[in-house]
Amino acid sequence: MNLKRNSYLEAYLKAHPENERLISVFNFFAEYSDSDSDLEAIVGGILRNALDEVIDMPRTNRYSIDELEKTEKTYIGTKVEIVFRDTFGLGKGRKLDLLIGEKEVDVKNTIGSNWTIPSEAVDEICILLLSNDSKSFFQFGLIICRDRVLNKGKNRDGKRTISKEGKNEILWLVKDGQLPRNFFLHLSDSARREILEPRGGSTRLANLFRRFQNELIGRRLVECVAQQKDYMKRIRGNGGARDILALEGLTVLWGGNREDKAKLENLGFTGVTTEHFVCVSDS
After folding, report:
1. pLDDT for 206-242, tens place per residue?
2. Does residue 129 contact residue 140 with C-beta atoms inside 8 Å?
3. What residue segments make up the domains of the chain, in order of their start?
4. Does the pTM of the predicted model rise above 0.90?
5. Residue limits of the Type II restriction enzyme NaeI domain (predicted)?
6. Topology of 3-178 in CATH?
7. Architecture in CATH of 187-281
């Protein structure tokens, strides 16, 4: 455990010694690692993928959470839980969403500013996830949902929110995380049409990479723009986006290729995985 994290935990436990049972769950995530990425990149990717799957741009022509139906917004939390559990290789709890070691843990996700806590999660450990798509921002923390951290009022489903004072008891794993960007959210209609209107998948992808040079572009977005199952074929040579862009002095690098990934790391990119593509200038 690094010194910065260790000092943060010491300060937290000094202020909230009764929350010691959070530590094993905290350590599970803090020490989690794979060959590709760090915790912020992993959780940011989980949230981005969940949001994109519910927005479902290729089939619905929507780009924003604001365009979703109320029932779809509710489903975001379920999708986040499923992807989160699968990514970290966790099993379901007997009572709550997850089992981490021997601890039952619930997952609470919000696209707003607070979390709603059901009665069955009171006095239990909860994972708190918050995403703000318009600001490309997310948070990831832990809390024990004791009565003292919850507001007294309940909604129609009997759920309560975390109070202003209660938020001081959140044990943060990622407090100011960078959510991978929703590239189409802030584009003008004309810019969207420029990328998406051409009939050929290779041309659409070339337009995407050309506009968003030197940025990590996720597999899901590439698949959405290609609108074809074999989207990699639309990137490769032999008439793919790479050939189109090569004539302009641009190269598409893929995190799943060892040489490409090394080039990206040398250029200063971090958190690059097999899910990522980057368009860079040859000069």
Report:
1. 999 999 999 999 888 888 888 876 778 778 777 889 9
2. yes
3. 3-178, 187-281
4. no
5. 43-279
6. ECO RV Endonuclease; Chain A (3.40.600)
7. Orthogonal Bundle (1.10)
Q: Which two tokens stand for residue 189?
A: 């209609």
